[in-house]
Amino acid sequence: MAVLARAGAEEIAAGLDRATRLDNAGARPAHRRLRGPETGLVMVRGRIGGGGDAFNLGEMTATRCTIRTECGHTGHAYVAGRDARQAELAALADALLQDPARQPTLLQAVIQPLADAQQAAAQTTARKAAATQVKFFTLAAMRS
Q1: In whole angstroms, what is the distance from residue 14 CA to residue 29 CA?
Q2: What is the pTM of this model?
Q3: What is the per-residue burial (b if ≥16 Cβ within 10 Å, else e) of 79-111?
């Protein structure tokens, strides 16, 4: 779900289309909305020093959705921001992943490509940040 929550609606839709082609299903399975998509605010909490007492950092916008497929699988999704389509597609992917027959195809066609792209983007960001890092000499090294 973390991978789906970080992916955009178009990326999830493309992955689901790939999965339906691999399954020879032709189209995404029918589903109905049980709740949402609804946009609201959630409280973000932090910890002092990363491990100390918790405090309320502030609020952020989130969208949630719950759907049920025609097979009876229920999917839930919470995503940051206001993208109702992203929330619905993530909930659909969650429901489809619960079907043992579809799960391997979805992992291969949707989850793994998204996870790989997100990891590559994180590595690119880390490389850019590392290139700007300044290494200072310590005073102890300078006194010797």
Answers
A1: 15
A2: 0.80
A3: beeebbbbbbbbbbbbbbbeeeebeebbeebbb
CA dihedral of 61, 92, 121, 63, whole degrees rounded to 10:
0
Rounded to whole angstroms, the Cα distance separating 67 from 10 reads 19
The residue range of the domain holding 41 is 2-143
Q: Which of 43, 37, 82 is nearest to 62 (CA)?
A: 82
Rounded Cα–Cα distance for residues 98 and 121 (Å)? 28
pLDDT digits (tens, 9 = 90+) for 5-63: 999 999 999 998 888 887 776 667 888 999 989 999 999 998 888 778 889 999 999 99
* Count of domains forming the chain: 1
pLDDT for 25 equals 61
Between CA 102 and CA 13 the distance in angstroms is 16
Q: Measuring CA to CA, how many Å separate 125 from each of 8, 81, 132? A: 18, 22, 11
> Quick one: how far is CA 115 from the chain centroid?
9
**Residue indicated by tokens 């990363």:** 50
